[in-house]
Fold this sequence. Notes:
This protein has eleven helices and 13 strands. It is α/β, with parallel strands linked by helices. Strand 2 and strand 3 form a beta hairpin. The model is unreliable at about 10-20 and about 335-363 (pLDDT under 50). One 2-acetamido-2-deoxy-beta-D-glucopyranose binds near residues 50 and 55.
Amino acid sequence: MPSSxxxxxxxxxxxxxxxxxxxxxxxxxxxxxxxxxxxxxxxAHDSPFISNASNSYTSSGNQNYNSTVQLSAGVxxxxxxxHKTNSSSNxxxxxxxxxxxxxxxxxxxxxxxxxxxxxxxxxxxVVTLLLVNSDSASAASLDAEYTAAGIKGYTYTPASxxxxxxxxWPTLQQMISxxxxxxxxxxSLTQDSTYPYLMxxxxxxxxxxxxxxxxxxxxxxxxxxxxxxxxxxxxxxxNRLFLQNHFLYEQQAFGIQTPDTADLTGTNSxxxxxxxxxxxxxxxxxxYSRKPWTVLVDFFHVGPAISSVDRANSVSNSTTGRxxxxxxxxxSSTTTSAAAPGKGGATTTLVIGMIVMVxxxxx
Length: 363
Ligand SMILES: *[C@@H]1O[C@H](CO)[C@@H](O)[C@H](O)[C@H]1NC(C)=O
Ligand SMILES: *[C@@H]1O[C@H](CO)[C@@H](O)[C@H](O)[C@H]1NC(C)=O
Ligand SMILES: *[C@@H]1O[C@H](CO)[C@@H](O)[C@H](O)[C@H]1NC(C)=O
Ligand SMILES: *[C@@H]1O[C@H](CO)[C@@H](O)[C@H](O)[C@H]1NC(C)=O
Ligand SMILES: *[C@@H]1O[C@H](CO)[C@@H](O)[C@H](O)[C@H]1NC(C)=O
Ligand SMILES: *[C@@H]1O[C@H](CO)[C@@H](O)[C@H](O)[C@H]1NC(C)=O
Ligand SMILES: *[C@@H]1O[C@H](CO)[C@@H](O)[C@H](O)[C@H]1NC(C)=O
Ligand SMILES: *[C@@H]1O[C@H](CO)[C@@H](O)[C@H](O)[C@H]1NC(C)=O
Ligand SMILES: *[C@@H]1O[C@H](CO)[C@@H](O)[C@H](O)[C@H]1NC(C)=O
């Protein structure tokens, strides 16, 4: 009896560490105790702007899969552009690519509700939004969207209204335990103490240049905000988090830029090749003596970009809970549907885009 009791007790004790080890934060148990600012997050550039079969693979899209699929695959930062428009007679905040006449994917509040649904179903995950504030929405206007989406309960409010050292941010586990798992940065925003969870991006973050058109153009040098531009040491001592842009544009006529999909596989690769994400992370890690806080990519699933991020976080062998969508870039050549209009879809969109640009520019 006593010995079997002892064995049961030992067996029970043995299960405890196993149970704890299964608890993952942002897809790895190794990340729970790490500071939010001391983790490399995979960011989906222009997350809601999707190029897929239903829009004939528009060349205005930066991703092939929607934000829900991105999150389930391991993306933890979503960027988007917020524009003011007027469908109905009232002004509304929509997610539009460059212009709401070019690509309007609907209301900000609808997208926020989609993210809330994902957060509801994934209680151990911390997600960050980076909203490009194209029409200078006030904090109150953005807050109304969060309220309408029912997502305010998840918002994280920083301890300080100015930058703190990256390792001083709370750990993922602290944010999860507090239920404040949604971090929001807005570029740019007049911070309002009534809505302290809405953080002005460039108060807390610096970025390298984002307008690159060649694999040899990537640089680690600070570009924004202007107070740290060109000065690596100033950027580090400002305590801001480093957002590393890593996507390429292809220059079209009339100043229109579309994602460079021809170089995509190399751009998102974990390797050390020219322009590769893995190489770019290594380069910038040497420059700053710390890993980037976020890498922002187009078509996140290609590469896969998450491999470089897992390597940066040293969690390549401990990730769990992701749903992969493969690494194939999807365009009209990858679909067999007879209804697909082939390359005409992208071309038509480009032509419409040019007409819009001509109208906007008054040419
Ligand atoms: C920061 O991350 C490194 C691993 O890259 C880890 O060794 C260190 O303990 C972390 N520090 C904090 C405060 O999270
Ligand atoms: C996102 O995409 C998935 C798979 O393609 C689809 O099942 C889901 O309905 C989409 N979600 C939204 C909110 O569009
Ligand atoms: C395809 O893209 C459109 C946006 O243009 C989006 O509304 C739709 O949900 C996407 N389909 C899937 C399956 O994600
Ligand atoms: C928005 O509405 C105003 C009047 O309410 C109108 O003058 C303007 O042209 C509209 N803008 C767009 C982009 O529809
Ligand atoms: C958790 O919530 C408490 C109470 O609101 C707050 O004092 C504390 O700073 C929060 N911690 C984090 C990491 O947000
Ligand atoms: C980008 O790369 C191209 C091709 O290598 C080069 O001609 C151009 O000068 C580069 N631009 C910058 C800003 O580095
Ligand atoms: C290639 O990447 C690995 C992993 O980051 C790094 O250790 C190595 O120094 C890199 N090699 C070169 C030549 O950049
Ligand atoms: C990293 O730095 C090396 C050496 O300067 C350079 O050859 C390579 O192109 C850089 N990689 C990226 C992606 O910028
Ligand atoms: C991960 O697993 C691979 C294959 O089992 C092994 O070669 C590698 O050393 C492991 N890496 C780490 C960081 O444990």
